[in-house]
Specification:
231 residues, mainly alpha, two-stranded antiparallel ribbon, 10 helices
Length: 231
């Protein structure tokens, strides 16, 4: 059954968000989300790999035998991860050093392999690219939100290190609570990532529950005005 573009986008950004619903890709999500910029960098790299690998796998899906599809998918994904890593090393070298091993580990991200198997191998190229974009952006938004929260609570800053991605002129974009703010060290430690992600998942469940209750609530019919008695 063909999936509409609107459904693909809503699934990627919210309904089937891979970080909040499927709980895939948690290793990089929890490891590098100590600042907003780190989350943005890894999220964009993952999105580029998702779009490229989905498009390629969708294009070759009719020529790949079922017996070897998974090795072929991993080979395609690894090729694009290598290209993205080399590009980041060339143009965003300092950020590349901070993200470290988690860039090549995009190859093992279950989100990418899962979308290749569940969607790209069964749908045409345009829809597969849209699925990669929406899933990647949903993952990136969670990375940025979690990273921003941990950075602000733990360090009292927002967009610290923006120059790593946007150049020296972006240093003015950073916000700080000042030297007197000592922060909550737990927020930038590994346990803080688990607590933060748990809160985001709980918040999504609350929002979904309220939206479902509103949808199930029967619309109240307007009260009819009593007919005026004829004199």
């Amino acid at each position: 059954m063909s999936t509409s573009n609107r459904e693909i986008i809503s699934n990627g950004l919210w309904n089937n968000n891979q970080a909040l619903v499927a709980l895939l890709g948690l290793c990089p999500l929890l490891a590098v989300s100590n600042t907003l910029i780190n989350g943005l960098g890894l999220g964009l790299a993952t999105t580029l790999v998702l779009i490229s690998s989905n498009a390629t796998i969708s294009f070759i899906r009719n020529w790949v035998r079922q017996e070897v599809r998974l090795p072929v998918f991993v080979l395609v994904i690894a090729s694009f991860v290598t290209a993205v890593e080399l590009a980041m090393n060339a143009w965003f070298h300092d950020l590349h050093k901070i993200l470290g091993i988690f860039i090549p580990l995009i190859v093992t991200n279950c989100t990418i392999v899962g979308r290749a198997e569940a969607f790209a191998s069964r749908n045409p190229v345009p829809q597969s690219m849209l699925d990669g974009l929406s899933m990647g952006m949903g993952f990136t938004l969670v990375l940025m939100t979690l990273g921003g929260l941990r950075e602000f609570i733990g360090q009292g800053t927002i967009l610290a290190g923006a120059h790593l991605m946007f150049g020296e002129a972006a240093r003015s974009l950073s916000f700080s609570m000042g030297a007197d703010y000592h922060g909550l060290i737990l927020a930038i430690l590994p346990p803080g990532a688990f607590f933060g992600l748990g809160l985001l998942i709980a918040l999504k469940h609350v929002i979904d529950k309220r939206n479902a209750q509103r949808a199930d609530k029967p619309a109240q019919a307007p009260t009819a005005e009593p007919a005026a008695a004829e004199g």
